Amino acid sequence: MKRLLQNIGWLLGGRGFNAVMSLLYLALATRTLGLEGFGYFALIVALGQAVTGLANFQTWQFVVRWGANGNGLADATGFAIALDMLSVIMGTIVAAILVSTAPLWLPLPQDLLWLAFGYCLVSVLAIRSTPTGLLRLHFKYGTSTAAEAVQPAIRAAGAVLAWLFMPTVAGFIIAWAAAEVAVALALWFVAGRTDRIDLSRISLRRIPRAHPDAWRFVWSTNLSGSLNVAGKQVMILMVGSLGGEALAGGFRVASQLGQALVQLAQTVSKAIYPELVHARDEALAMARRMANIALIGGVMAVLVALFAGRWGLNFVAGPEFEGFYWAMVILAIAGAVELVGASLESLLVSAGKAHTAFIVRAVPTILALVLLDAAIDWNGAKGAAFAVLGSSSLAVIGFYVAMLNLQQIRIMVEPIDPQPPKEDRPAPTQQRD
């Protein structure tokens, strides 16, 4: 528990730096581009992140899961890199399809389509899940945090340069693309120094031969990751498709400020997963303690959003975005719910129940996307935020029920009294004086 809290501290330190930098580049982008221009920017970024999330396998979990014993680390890393290569191919195809059909469903001008495809391609090539897994396997959270700090730093510097020399959507997208490349190179560099990466072990066959359930775990975690993307980036794309670029831009700002807790939930999840893999006997108790801590933090964060959110929107994005205050508060509540559920979801995945976690996440997410059109017609950005809140709440309730079932199964299989009956026990031997 002490090491877990220390690792979370490292990750939260990185998130704190990221938060400060994000306020800087968010303020520059919103005030420079305006509501509609920032809407175009938000749609392109969401498109790139959606493509990456849909095509990307959660390879960091594979490295932690199958490399934890040390003997299979080279094969686990090779398997993860092979999946990354597959992700690049899949992502390029998906990006080409989505961008070529974008005029039919997204309010993007024709002159921004090639820019959108280029950003999608850079995002896919900058996949960095495998080196992140290597660092987490060895609990190198300080090193990982330092490498990941490259991204917000480059984004902030690029936003300043775009504001000065290229105050257009293209200028800010180029800054974001440069940050993606820089952080990927930094993580691969430090991961290579931590562990020698044997490229000859790149294979899609070795790990499945040693672990028959490997592909089931791979597809379950990939689909779960895709659902997390659907809950955020695809939601922004659909808001833009149904409500226009201005609504997408405002919803993006409200989401980034209000759902900062979702990023915190991901931080907790990423820190706790390796610990749950290494300490299976204490996994349930550890997950329960983390959920209790998260509940306190979530309530405090929602109160901050409620009482300081309007001022924050005005200070960061300007008065043009003040109308999205209640959407931001609702999304903050959804983030608090996700924060409580982060350790529960990680517990299911670490226990080999990734398929259960996927199903529990899938049903509410699909329901939210199906009802999004009606929600926007009902109450605009606030309606879309309520759809996100409903999805998060149902998912976390499902994780809790699944955890209770997992606990009952463990109680059933564990012997109640491991000692033999009293009459069968050997008589105690007499001790020497």
Question: Quick gist of this model?
Answer:
It is a multi-pass membrane protein. The protein has 16 helices and no strands.
- Counting helices, strands and paired strands, the structural category is mainly alpha
Kindly, what is the distance between the CA atoms of the first and last residues, rounded to a whole number of angstroms?
42 Å
Number of domain units? 2
Instruction: Please write the string of helix (H) and strand (E) elements.
Output: HHHHHHHHHHHHHHHH
Instruction: Please work out how many helical segments DSSP would assign.
Output: 16
Mean pLDDT: 82
- Give the number of DSSP strands: 0
Beta-strand percentage?
under 5%
Q: Uncertain runs with pLDDT below 50, 5 residues or more?
A: 411-418, 420-433
What is the overall silhouette? globular
Backbone CA Rg: 23 Å
- Amount of helix: over 70%
Tell me about the largest β-sheet.
Answer: none
Provide an overview of this structure.
There is one protein chain. This protein is mostly helical and 433 residues long. It folds into 2 domains: 1-212, no CATH class; 213-413, no CATH class. 82% of the residues lie in helices and 0% in strands. The chain contains 16 helices and no strands. The chain has helices at 2-55, 59-67, 73-100, 102-105, 113-125, 129-137, 141-148, 150-165, 169-194, 206-210, 214-243, 245-258, 260-278, 283-316, 325-350, 354-413. α1 (2-55) packs across α9 (169-194), α11 packs across α12 and α13 (260-278) runs parallel beside α15. The longest helix has 60 residues, at 354-413. The radius of gyration is 23 Å and the shape is globular. Mean pLDDT is 82; it is low at 411-418 and 420-433.
